[in-house]
Amino acid sequence: xxxxxxxxxxxxxxxxxxxxxxxxxxxxxxxxxxxxxxxxxxxxxxxxxxxxxxxxxxxxxxxxxxxxxxxxxxxxxxxxxxxxxxxxxxxxxxxxxxxxxxxxxxxxxxxxxxxxxxxxxxxxxxxxxxxx
Amino acid sequence: xxxxxxxxxxxxxxxxxxxxxxxxxxxxxxxxxxxxxxxxxxxxxxxxxxxxxxxxxxxxxxxxxxxxxxxxxxxxxxxxxxxxxxxxxxxxxxxxxxxxxxxxxxxxxxxxxxxxxxxxxxxxxxxxxxxxxxxxxxxxxxxxxxxxxxxxxxxxxxxxxxxxxxxxxxxxxxxxxxxxxxxxxxxxxxxxxxxxxxxxxxxxxxxxxxxxxxxxxxxxxxxxxxxxxxxxxxxxxxxxxxxx
Amino acid sequence: xxxxxxxxxxxxxxxxxxxxxxxxxxxxxxxxxxxxxxxxxxxxxxxxxxxxxxxxxxxxxxxxxxxxxxxxxxxxxxxxxxxxxxxxxxxxxxxxxxxxxxxxxxxxxxxxxxxxxxxxxxxxxxxxxxxxxxxxxxxxxxxxxxxxxxxxxxxxxxxxxxxxxxxxxxxxxxxxxxxxxxxxxxxxxxxxxxxxxxxxxxxxxxxxxxxxxxxxxxxxxxxxxxxxxxxxxxxxxxxxxxxxxxxxxxxxxxxxxxxxxxxxxxxxxxxxxxxxxxxxxxxxxxxxxxxxxxxxxxxxxxxxxxxxxxxxxxxxxxxxxxxxxxxxxxxxxxxxxxxxxxxxxxxxxxxxxxxxxxxxxxxxxxxxxxxxxxxxxxxxxxxxxxxxxx
Amino acid sequence: xxxxxxxxxxxxxxxxxxxxxxxxxxxxxxxxxxxxxxxxxxxxxxxxxxxxxxxxxxxxxxxxxxxxxxxxxxxxxxxxxxxxxxxxxxxxxxxxxxxxxxxxxxxxxxxxxxxxxxxxxxxxxxxxxx
Lengths: 132, 244, 390, 130
Fold this sequence. Notes:
Distance between the termini of chain B: 61 Å
Radius of gyration of chain D: 20 Å
Largest sheet of chain D: none
CATH topology of chain D: 3 helical TM bundles of succinate and fumarate reductases
Oligomer: heterotetramer
Radius of gyration of chain B: 20 Å
Largest interface: B-C, 61 and 67 residues
Number of domains of chain B: 2
Structural class of chain D: mainly alpha
Largest sheet of chain B: 5 strands, mixed
Number of strands of chain D: 0
CATH architecture of chain D: Up-down Bundle
Helix content of chain B: 25-40%
Order of helices and strands of chain B: EEHEEHEEEHEEHHHHHHH
Number of strands of chain B: 9
CATH class of chain D: Mainly Alpha
Order of helices and strands of chain D: HHHHH
Number of domains of chain D: 1
Number of helices of chain B: 10
Strand content of chain D: under 5%
Number of helices of chain D: 5
Strand order of the largest sheet of chain B: 2-1-5-3-4
Distance between the termini of chain D: 73 Å
Structural class of chain B: alpha+beta
Helix content of chain D: over 70%
CATH architecture of the largest domain in chain B: Orthogonal Bundle
Shape of chain D: elongated
Shape of chain B: elongated
CATH topology of the largest domain in chain B: Fumarate Reductase Iron-sulfur Protein, Chain B, domain 2
CATH superfamily of the largest domain in chain B: Alpha-helical ferredoxin
């Protein structure tokens, strides 16, 4: 008579921020950035395989990486690293009894730091690309 | 008694309907309300004057029983203490749905017996039969225990949790919080909370704490629980006897 | 072995306690309830497990029932009761005039009291009005309404009772007009009409008992539905139940529950019982009266306001003014209609006793030999409650 | 009625290796180490040179310093551990069946070992080019 509601397809609910709060956003971007970084890690390891093939193969690849499109992609990785890493710091802190009742503020501070870091990297990376 | 003349707002209720063997749909009701009365009053009036087949749960009407949790415009609310003013305005629409992550009995009523069973399994006590607090305030060393006795088992935290949405076996924020009430873990309780479906399933979305109507702060309790569990397990691995 | 079937109408406190009592006596019990458990008067109680002191002067019969049942319930269902005790406080000379009478009444009814000096009282409850003249402790307690009903329900279910929630009774029928043997009801979950047969029907519908009895024939019950308001504030400013030292009046009781307090109540009359509007004037009155007892209510926020309609019995039934006691009617004796018994009146504190008396009558009518055993046995946990509709 | 032990059995079923205190703590610890090593990795590989990326020649000469390959190998182990534990947590939220969970557990261990072996081979290959 009664219907069990949780179903496997509900995984989309992980990424549904409607009517949810700050903590949910933290959860969403942590999960998305985490999954994104796993994907990046796989690609990164494969690409680095070119190092073993000698200077020419690798440097050719690096040259391609210096186009604005790939720099933007790399910037995305940098952003994910900062968001996921700093959010990880938040989870470590709250899990060990620090700032558990201030998690919202903690999250916002962390996002500000991450934002600043991404801007710094963007400036650095695009400046180099332009100058190079 | 004089009629209540303060029904100054008109609200459109869009209510989730589900009868056994029939497809779910939404029904619309126009209700005149007092902005300072509670959403449950509006729903009860719909039942009394507009549609006697409407099924919803309620009992105490003052937030001690935890029966009347519902989704109000997608957000978990204990409807007996949520005023119209706090969620809408004159002429506004309220979408009312049953809590998520529980089996729906019919319309707005859900079956919470599964949660009760889990609360029972972790030895949570619903009413603290003692004067652990003085009227000057709570004795500090009993704060934890008392705050957990404030849990009214309304299920809002379980409805709001993104993990409960995908894993019905996740024992849920209320239960993880409640497990800490006795102060020490029995072996059974330890095995329940330190399990795949226990404290480790939480991914810190803090939605439970955000929707808790009763000051329990389940998210903080889960964080605290993990610390305790890691310490307990590490100590055991190193062969250190626990103080009993 | 053949078990007679008893159909109980209403899963308020009386209905669930009766189902438990009858099921323990080995009868086949089916409870029909139009909504969820205790959705009417019972759920919306103040949550006060009376010591009886409130009635000791004017209604000693109720007072004696209260103190006895208070002790029994505290023993059989401790899980949902907060036995913090209660305090009667006098704020002026008029209250003080009531003192002698009150203490004598309590002593007569067997309610233990202890008088405190104002200083002792303020030490115990620092938020009380510092103007208080005297204070007397009584064994009041607070309980959780839904969980109390669920404990009785779970225990009844353990002994085989069946609870059909969200099933609204629409008719009482029988082979002939003077015999009730079946109940028609509308299942709100499936939307279908159903009929259930039984050997006896017990009408435990509280303030709605008149409506149910009316389905059996031209029966008039002496019930006076008397609603009252309760207002909850969001800080726990007292640990004991605080009562005004006077004859029962408006807003003279404050019950602490969890992290809040509830002030009640009033008395007026209502016709439409399915929805009783919460009136602002009464909310204001509770605030005013509450502040007289505990001035710090000024520094709290209102958390909830709700109405509950007590099923008071009027003079025809008991030969006096309105009373908080209860009454069981066998409609064969009273109205010539067999197979129907009505239990009404009473209050949460006396729910078990009401069930015992009614079950005695039911068993006698059925010729069923079984004694009441609800006094001695601890109830099952409310968490063993199972939702049932069919 | 509540059956004593039914829930207990559910939570103690031994044919399932899900999440636990030690695994969770490993995820947290690896995450923490990751932050420390990542900072060094980022500085060394992306910030110190113009253009943000090292040429093949630069990498080979860097790797002649003993602490660089050591650091990179530690970094690799930590990052693979954290990534797989994290990914596994996400999968666990979908409540895989016992059988599927066993497949996930075994394959993740194998993938982790393979990734680390591959990384070490890569480091050795770079060193040999120097």
